Amino acid sequence: MMTFDLFHTPSDDGTYELSINESPPLHFSTPGAALGYAVKLANQRHRQGLDYAINIEGGDGRWRLFEGWRLCA
């Protein structure tokens, strides 16, 4: 399973971090750009019949499974 973790608070340089499988994070200018990239990769995995999870950290520090955008087959 591939996991995508989108952090709530921007990093020191003001970018938003997306970690894939707990690797060093990728940096994006907006949270939406980070989420869009995660959804794009998740769509690719879905088409290949592979599992994924997109986790988003809320302002309260709790992590939630993202289920907002419908993935296309």
UniProtKB/TrEMBL annotation:
It comes from the Bacteria. This is Uncharacterized protein.
